[in-house]
Amino acid sequence: MLEATPLISPKPVTRSRDATRLRGEVVYMYAFDIAYDMQRKQLGELLGQPVGTFSVDSTKRAPRQLFFYRPQMIRLPPAEKFGPHGIVRMERVVKIMPVGAISITVKVPFEVDQLSDLVDFHELRFRDGSTVSDDAKLLGEQIRRELLPHLISPVQAISDVEAYTVFCIEGPLRKIYAGEEVDVSAEHWLQTHRRDVSALLTQEPDADLLSAQEAEESSSKYFSYYQDDICVIDWDAALIVDDPREFDEALYIMELANLQLAELEAYDRLLDESLERTYRDLGSQGLGRRRLGAVQKELRELRVDSARINDELSNITKFFGDWHLARLYQGLAARFHLDDWNKSVRNKLQALDEIYQLIHADSTNRIMIFLEVLIVLLFIFEVAKSFFDK
Questions:
Q1: Which DSSP string corresponds to 32-95?
Q2: Which of 73, 124, 126, 316 is least surrounded by CB atoms within 10 angstroms?
Q3: H or E segment at 151?
Q4: With contact defined as beta carbons under 8 Å apart, do 189 and 242 qualify?
């Protein structure tokens, strides 16, 4: 009995071997926090490459007021290194964000027989012992040094990186059905390959080791617009099946969400350091008026900067007019726990605000006590003066 498979369009058989072969590219995303802020200037050149403006066009049905944030970017010349299966050709793009961050994407093409063959691409290691992540960090440090004149309070060196891996498979997916090569519905393909997809996203070499619960949970968040496209997202990786010309839209949304996560983590660390320093200063003996004023100034600046940073992070993730990409971002935000990070930042800002109010009230009380003492002394002086004048 033949399997009831959702089909899109039958085509004559050309090469049965190619019907089930998977082609596409692995996209490695790396977000780096390189400074507290950055000057709002158009760059002319970076790493010897002209700086342009990134743009992405939505091909889904959308209102005319479609809006995407458009950062500055450079496209580096392709690089080649020896990988585990031969020469690996890498395409690299760098985007510069005004919040003091950069995003590096590295694209590596692939052609494999099955999904499990892609697990090794999760953290691609070259024959010299380095990885794609190592190369991205070196590139990020080069960019940080070259951008130093434009950075405000830059980091001393790049340390933490927020990485995300996306497996992009060219659609439509095909199979041999009743002697013909046919296109298969992407959602049906996911249902029949759910365990393999989950193993790929979780970097598990043996899909059979995954429990049914894990296989279901890791691939539970997926989004589809047409019959032949689908996007499955997890916290550390994602899978896209679509026409290669449509990859960029979803990839850009993932890149922005990943960068937002990196910036929230960096700002959370900054607030931790500020809170620790403030508690230490307030708890120390002999906190003078000058140091107290410095603490007040620092807290006041943090309050103002927090509003600016939150506003800019919100601006770069606004998708006016494209509902499909907006719901994709919402799914990513849930996977990345962006709301939890925002809540953590807000709670620490609230703690700093309360400390500022206490310090301000304490400072005001000191001034009032000083004025009251001064008034008493003036009164005593007037009484003494009138007594001696007699």
A1: EE-EEEE------EETTEE-EE------S---TT------EEEEEEEEEEEETTEEEEEEEEEE
A2: 126
A3: strand 151-154
A4: no
CA gap 299, 304 in Å, rounded:
9
- CA separation, residue 237 to residues 18, 104, 159, 246, 382 (Å): 26, 16, 21, 18, 79
Residue carrying structure tokens 């049905």: 61
Quote the pLDDT of residue 4.
42
Find all residues with CB under 8 Å of 252, minimum gap 6, and list them.
54, 56, 68
In angstroms, the CA 281 to CA 278 distance is 5
248 contact partners, CB below 8 Å, separation of at least 6: 56
pLDDT digits (tens, 9 = 90+) for 43-102: 989 999 999 988 776 555 544 444 567 889 999 999 999 887 788 899 999 999 888 899
Closest CA to 147 of 45, 52, 70, 263: 45
Model confidence, pTM? 0.82
Mean pLDDT confidence for 185-214:
92
| pLDDT of 29 higher than 90 | yes
Take residue 8 and report the two structure tokens written for it: 């899109």
Q: Which two tokens stand for residue 322?
A: 């494209």
Bond prior to 98 in cis (omega within 30° of 0): no
